[in-house]
Amino acid sequence: MTDAPRRDIKNHVLFEIATEVANRVGGIYSVLKSKAQVTTAEYGSTYTLLGPLNRASAAVEVEEIEPKDPAMIKTIKSMNERGVVTLYGRWLIDGAPRVLLFDTKTAYHKLDEWKGDLWSTAGIPSPPDD
Predict the structure, then answer these.
(1) InterPro entries under this entry (predicted)?
(2) 36/46 Cα distance (integer angstroms)
């Protein structure tokens, strides 16, 4: 029997996922914006918000920057090589949290694969039309 790998609880990352990251659509935008400064102060560069890329809002809400974390660099490069367009930067709100935005139109071809991964690795179901 092999031992399970130990988790590194000191060098963790925090991802927050929402459709309203740097994309004002409704009330969740205000919630994210109101807690970003505190969360960024606590987690620093290990906190990244993930969301869809809306080019119109990102043009005025996000300052594109180069990631410094090797794992983030590798992940973004891998996604871009697979045809998924991304934007990494700072959201221009209090706290300036890092964001990774995805052009969902370029990711549709991966949707079924990702849903399969969610199910097989975490048991998370996703309806066919979701």
Answers:
(1) Glycogen_synth
(2) 13
